[in-house]
Amino acid sequence: MKVGIELAAGYIMENKQAVLDFQEEQRNTLKDCVEKAISDENTIENLVFENEELSEFDMSSIDFEKVQFIKCTFHKCNFSRSRFYYVDFINCNISLSDFSKTFWKKSNITESNAVGGKFLESSIKETKMTDSMFDYGNFSNSIVTDCVLDNCKFIESSFAESKIKKIKLKKITFSGTDFFKTPLRGIDLSDCLIDGIKISADLFELKGAKISSDQAVELVRVFDIEIV
Q1: So which domain of life are we looking at (predicted)?
Q2: In Å, how far from its chain's centre is CA 211?
Q3: Helix (H, G, I), strand (E, B) or coil at 61
Q4: What is the mean pLDDT of each run of 10 residues along the chain (228 residues)?
């Protein structure tokens, strides 16, 4: 009987250790995948990463395809020159991370914190950003086309010298946002807050854009335009 108890106890301990080993393996899954991608084909696909926490980690020049990041924290991480196809960031913190020169297509950023993120010289296509914060983000010299932005904040962000076309904007805060030398022709800004936006003195950037009467009155006041 004693031998049986000892065997059972040993079996339980082995299984407990196996579970701990599995949990440790799962916890390091993203790091392992990145290291493998760097040494192999630079591709991570068809995976879900949840509750990952990485700081100042290099994930540059990697192709992410059909990947979900759920409740992950990537603080000051380097994603520069990476490509995102059918990728979802859901309830993530990607603040102060570097997404410069990245390519996005058919992806989603939802309920996430991207404050201070760098998206310079990026191409963002057919992508949806929802209920997220991009304050102080830098999208300068980027291309943004066929995208949907819904209930997001871009306070004091920059889209300077960018190309923005065919995007749908709903309840977007662009307070203090820099659109210098970025034509907004055909863009409906009427449901956005655009107080303090940075544009040329001749309002070149707003030619052909749609704004509300209240926004027009504010622009007249700010730019000291005389109506005759």
Answers
A1: Bacteria
A2: 26
A3: coil
A4: 50 50 53 86 92 95 97 97 98 98 98 98 98 98 98 98 97 97 96 94 91 85 57
